[in-house]
Each structure stands twice: as C-alpha cells, then as structure tokens.
Amino acid sequence: MTSLTPTWRRLVAVAVTVLAAAACGSSSGGGSSAAKTNGPITLTMWYWGQQEAHGLSTFLADSVKKYEALHPNITIKTVLQSTDNLMPNFAAAAKAKKGPDIEYRWGGIWTLQDAWDGNLAPISDYIPASERSHYLNASEDTWDGKVWSAPWYVQPSFPILYRKDVLARAGISSPPKTWDDFLSDCSTLRSKGITPIAGGVKDGWFGGWLFSILGSESLTSVDELKQAVAGSKKFTDPDLAQWWTRLGQMISSKCWNDDIGSLDLYQAQQTWVDGKSAMTVTAGTDVRKFVSQVGGSKVGVMTMPTYADGIGAGKLGSTSQTLAISSWSPYKQQAADFIMFMHTPAELSRFYKDTGALPADDRFDASEIDVPQVKQLYDYSQNGAPYLENFIPTDLDSKANFGGVQLMFAGKATAQQAAQTMESDMERIRTIQPDLIDDFKKWTGQQ
Amino acid sequence: MDGTAVAATGERHTGAAPRGRPRRRRPWQALIWLAPALASIGLVYGYSIYRLVMEATHREGVGVGLGNLRIAIDDPFFRTALGNNLRLLLTLPVIIAVALVIAILLHEGMRGWRFHRVAIFIPYMLPVTVVGVLFGELLTLHGAVNSTLQTLHLAYFSEDWLGDPDWALRSLAGVIIWRELGFGVILFLARLLSLPGNVFDAARVDGAGWFRTQWHVTLPMMRSIIGFYLVIEAITLMSWVFSYVFVMTGGGPGQATQVTETYIYQNAFTSDIPWLAAAAATLLLIGVTAIAVLFLILRWAYGRRRAA
Predict the structure, then answer these.
(1) Could you say which of A136, A346, A439, B43 would form a disulfide bridge with A360 (CB–CB 3.0 to 4.6 Å)?
(2) Architecture of A159-315+387-443 per CATH?
(3) 3-state secondary structure labels for all residues of chain A
(4) Looking at the predicted structure, is the pLDDT value of residue A367 above 90?
C-alpha cells in the first residue's frame, strides 16, 4: 500500500473531522440530552395567562433568569400570546414543524387534539412519575397511557365574585345559593337600578364558561357529555340541554347587563369593579387582582347558585393550565427540565406571590395564601368538578356554545333551538371529522 | 388593444408611428427579460396555488377528487359565510356612487376641498385593526354612537350595532364603506384632474346643466377607472375583509358576520380541519378569479364595440 503524501494526509484528516462533526451534529438533533447539555441551547416558550393571572410575565421572566444562571448554556425566549391567537399560532407552527419548544395549553381536549395530531411529545417520557405525581389535574391530559402536558397552575372554573356593599345597597344581606334565590335577587337588584351580574360574550369565550358552569349542574356524570360527543346520547337530552333553559331564565329575569352582546368579558368586569353591578364571573386566577382593586372587605366568592344536584352543583370546575413540549423540539429534555424547575418549592412559592394564582402542584404550601377569597378558591379546588369545556371538541365549543349563547342573549334563539343547534353541530363534526371522534372515543374509553 | 386604450382614456390616439428602420421582433428576447419576474410569480403564486389545490383534493394524504369541495359547498357554515360576503358585495354600488359624488364635488372646488380631501383619505391610511378596535368601542350598546343619538333625542335609532345579529353585518358594512371610500375618492379625483377641460367647456357652451354634464361627459370618461375600482372593491369585499370581522365581531353574534375568510381561518387554525379550509379557499379563489375574468371580458367586449 502506497503511503499518502502530506497534502493528501491533511485532506483526509480534514474530511474525517468534518464527517465526525456532522455525525455529532445529527445525533444531537435527535434529542440526546447528554450530547446537548454542554452546547448552547435556545428554548422558545409560547405562553398565555398574563390575561388571567396578572404577574405571570414577571414570574416567568424571573424564573428564566434564575434558570439561565443555573444553566449558562441555555437561553429561554418567552413569547406572550393573545387569547385569540394561542391556538391558531401553534396550529401554524405545527404545520411548519417549527416554533416553540414549550407551548402553553389549556387542559383536556385543548391539549389532546394536538397530541392526536402528533404535535406534542408526551411529557411523561421526560418527567419522571415521582415528579408528576405532585402535579394536579394531570388526568385530563392523559391519553394512551401517557401524559401529554404538564399542569402549571390551577384554574378554579369559574367563581362568581359578588360585591357585599352593592348587594347591601339593594337590601340583600347574603349572596344567593339556590336558583330561585338568584332569580329573586335579580329582580330586587334591577328594581334598585343595579345590574345583577356582569358579563360579556362579544368574543364568544364566555359562552364556553357558561356551558361549563351551568351545564355541570344537571349532569350525573361527565360520561353523559362524552357519550353525547360520541353519539350515543344527544345534546337535546334533558340533562344535557337543561342549562340552555336556565340561561334563558337568567336572560328573561334580566340578570345580565343589557350590553352583554357588545362587550368582551374583561370589559364587563370593569363595571363590577366600578360598583355598577353586584356580581360577575371571573377566572379563579384573577380573583386576587379583583380583591385588591375593590377591597377585601367588599368582595365575596361563591359558586353558581344551584338548580340541580349534578356533579357541578355548588362546586367549581377543577382544571389546570398546562405546559406541553412540541414534538419537533430538539431539546425536549431541556424543556422538561425547565418545566420541572418551575415546580421546585421556591418557584411555587414565588408563583403564588407574583400571580395570586395557585400552582398546580401539591407541594405548594397553602399556608402561604394570604387572601381569604383565594383560600376559599383553594378549598373549592380540593373538591372540584370536571370542567366540561375540556371534554367537547373545540369546534363544537366555538360554534355551538359561543354562537348559541350570543344568539340567546340577542333574543334570536330559544333554549330549545340552541340545544338543537348544538346537536346538529355535533352531528356535522361527526361527519366531517371521524378521526377526531375515533381519537375522542379512545380517550374516553368508548372504543 | 386600440379599443382598450380608447376605453381607458376616452380619447383616440391618432399620432403617427415613429419612422425609421423597422426593428426585428425577437420574442425570446422578451422572454429572457420577463423570465425573472415570471419565475418569482410562478414560485410565489404558482406553487402556493398548487399546494392549495393539492390540499383541497386530499385528505390524510389520500386523493378524494372534488369530495372536499362538495363538503365545503354543503356545509351550512360555509354557505352562511359566502352569503355574508355576497351581502357585503351589495355595498359596492353605494361605495362607488358616494366616492364618485365626493370626488366630483372636490374636483369642482367645493369650499375647503383640500381639508375634505385629506379628511376623507385619512381613514384609508389607518390600519384596519385600529379602525376595528375604534368602531368596536364606538358601536357598543352604551358607546359613543348611541350616546350621541340619545343626546340628540334620537334614541329611537340606537341599536346594539355589533351585538344584534340583525345589525352586526350592516354595521360592519358601514365601517368598511367608511374606510374604503377614501381610496375611491382619491382614485376618481386623480382621473378627474387628468380629464381635458375643453370637453367640459364645450358641454357648458352647449347648454348642459351640472347633472347632464356629469352624466353625459364625466361618467363616460371615468368608465375605465370606475371599472377598475369596482373590481378592486369586489375582490376586497369577497376576500379582504378578514381583519374587520376578526377585530370587530369575530364572526358573531352566532354566525351573523362570518365570512369566507374567517371560515377558512377557523377551519385551518382552530377547528383543525385544514382540508376543509383549503377546499373553501379554492372555491373562494375560483370565485374571485371569475370576477376578475368577467371584468376583463366585459372591458374587452366594450372596447370592441367602441372600436366598431
């Protein structure tokens, strides 16, 4: 064998080095944690929640700073999403397989539809069971034996805030607990020129809330809802349709503000802060903000007055807002590590201090809750009900609930028509999205 | 070609062709010069349209022919959205007539015309999102519009402009007219300024009054620009109103202001049915192309008639 000249030797050496470097590069692209830990890594996180848990952006910025200090090779970029763009932006990213490593998700089907589409990596592959066992409401995000998103903070869904001073102005000494009391209080408040309860449905989202809050009172089990989605029950069945009738009663009793159709919920809540309405519905995570705006002594927290004795009667829905890892992320383990970092005791404590929201982790020390109204929410969340919106296709929610509630408030649909529309909308989804229904059935054990 | 030129300017160009040695035509030379532009158009539009059609005719990677398009056509939500687009299209004569009248008044030197011209064009310069947010506030039940009506003792006319399904689309149309008007006025005004003044003088000498002058002199000479604006606005109302709807109503109440663009967007990005979005987009593309082609055919036929 002829020996190589020095020039050729150098060329071969360079070629071998380049090939070796390329090989290392391709292996690191596969997500090997060990290979990447030392190299520079940039994680992108798309999040939402500042809208409902004021201070979340501050918390996150500090968390990122601390984490980056502990891991100098990791940089985390956070991008706050708007409510209307949270889902669409991720859908666009999923199409391009390029976008965030960590993505904020609402619970249940809001997470799992992306899991079924292959857009998420199961967090249970990266976060050990011993850690996950502390996360609250993870069962909503479990499918096919895996957990697809990590609970971040609890969303008690959804409390009614009442103004003690405004109720007192109308001669009402205690908030209504039963349906009849509620309708009676609506009349009393109206007669005094006070709006009983403030809401806004222009952007639609509040329709989904009302469905979950009112609808859960008449269900004996969330399975009834799941069966209606699958087609073995109907949304016109009495248990599933009754909430529309109750909503109709609220409307005819003039319980709501007359401009509910032209306002978003956040705009309407301001009238409650201003003392023009006696009650409003809010995200549980937002309660501390409202208490501080209005004054602790004036604010009370309650559940929707009861008209039945179903799973949600006298309770709040229990769900967690979550963080998922995208399936295309090359840094899944690092993303999971950052999520776990935010579940360390110091971060849990700081999360509550910064946001007033409850971390979705049983290691959070509840004695730190310094606002009685939030403590009340904590107690509710210990015995919460399933949050219905998380168990119907998102398309059904946006069309039947958002649209149906808007039309009822506008006086253009009756309760019966709204229920019938919901059933026909579901039938449409079954026809044009059979794969979604198949996945849904597998998730809910109906197949 | 001649006919088109006549229709576009209202004048016949009879100047003699430049003399000199005739230049040999080499079509391939023109193609070379056009190639970069054609390639970029082909890449940007051609490929996008190809991908769109592929997505519209496939589901889960399996070809379904026109099946997806049929589902879109049969979908009551798509029909509602398309119907709303067509209702918006009804505003077209209003936009054109109002823009034309304003342009003529400004052209005739109405008092403070410079101020009016700027005031009318400003809405068109504002981003649609700003306009949407602004009118979203103004048109609430207790917003500035209804408050003003109450102050003027006209409370009878106040409505829940965006919250009432019977009014939401009309309100939206009003906002679109308000904003789109500026473009039309400037376009028409530019054309009016380029018209030969002696034609108007001749009309006046012949004893034509204001209305007759506009009808028999101004309008015929404006025909091509009106046609152009008509097509632009028709396409806008069919496929360019997404931002208005998204910001002001989100398609509600119910489906009252849903348009094909929001239907496409929702199916693609929130309902997770991309093939249905692609099918609807293909139908929309066909519709809008048909409008443009129809306009070109009419223009061509008119040009031929004039030439004859």
Answers:
(1) A136
(2) 3-Layer(aba) Sandwich (3.40)
(3) CCCCCHHHHHHHHHHHHHHHHHHHHHHHHCCCHHHHCCCCEEEEEEECCCCCCCCHHHHHHHHHHHHHHHCCCEEEEEEECCHHHHHHHHHHHHHHCCCCCEEEECCCHHHHHHHHCCCEECHHHCCCHHHHCCECCHHHHEECCEECCEEEEEEEECCEEEEHHHHHHCCCCCCCCEHHHHHHHHHHHHHCCCEEEECCECCCHHHHHHHHHHHCCCCCCHHHHHHHHHCCCCCCCHHHHHHHHHHHHHHHCCCECCCHHHCEHHHHHHHHHCCCEEEEECCHHHHHHHHHHHCHHHEEEECCCECCCCCCCCCCEEEEEEEEEECCCCCHHHHHHHHHHCCCHHHHHHHHHHHCCCECECCCCHHHCCCHHHHHHHHHHHCCECCHHHHCCHHHHHHHHHHHHHHHHCCCCCHHHHHHHHHHHHHHHHHHCHHHHHHHHHHCCCC
(4) yes
In chain A, which segments carry CATH 3.40.190.10? Answer: 39-155+319-382, 159-315+387-443
Residue numbers in A near B60 (CB within 8 A): 435
pLDDT at A377: 97
B183-214 pLDDT, tens digit each = 999 999 999 999 998 998 999 899 999 999 99
Residues of A with Cβ-Cβ distance to B266 under 8 angstroms = 398
- Residue B250 sits at the chain A interface (C-beta within 8 Å): yes
Cβ pairs A/B, distance under 8 A: 99
pLDDT tens digits for range A11-68:
444 444 444 443 333 333 333 343 345 799 999 999 999 999 999 999 999 999 999 9
In whole angstroms, give the CA distance from residue A35 to residue A26: 11
Q: List phi, psi (to 5°) of A411.
A: 75, 20
Residue A302 · residue A92 · CB < 8 Å? no
Question: In chain A, which residues have their Cβ closer than 8 Å to the Cβ of B262?
Answer: none
Cβ–Cβ below 8 Å for B165 and A410: yes
ipTM of the complex: 0.86
A361 DSSP 8-state letter:
B
| CA-based nearest distance A354→chain B, Å | 30
Cβ distance B160 to A261 less than 8 Å, yes or no, reads yes
pLDDT, residue B5, reads 39
Q: For A251-269, how does the pLDDT look when each residue is reduced to its tens digit (9 = 90+)?
A: 999 999 999 999 999 999 9
d(C-alpha A200, C-alpha A181), whole Å: 23
Q: What's the DSSP call for residue A401?
A: I
Q: Is B55 on the interface with A (CB under 8 A)?
A: no
Q: Higher-confidence residue: A251 or A7?
A: A251
Alpha-carbon dihedral A279, A280, A281, A284, rounded to 10 degrees: -80
pLDDT tens-place string over residues A278-329: 999 999 999 999 999 999 999 999 999 999 999 999 999 999 999 999 999 9
B266–A contact, CB cutoff 8 A = yes
Nearest to A257 by CA among A221, A299, A206, A294: A206
Nearest CA in chain B to A435: B60
Q: Is B114 left (phi over 0), alpha (psi -120 to 50) or beta?
A: alpha
CB contact under 8 A, B252 and A403: yes
A398, B271: Cβ pair inside 8 Å?
A: yes
| Domain residue extents for chain B | 66-307
What's the rounded Cα separation, in Å, for the pair A152 and A359? 6
Structure tokens given for A147: 């957990």
Check residue A328 and give its pLDDT: 98
Q: Give the amino acid at B302.
A: Y
Tell me the CATH architecture of domain A39-155+319-382. 3-Layer(aba) Sandwich (3.40)
**Cβ of B249 and A84 within 8 Å?**
no
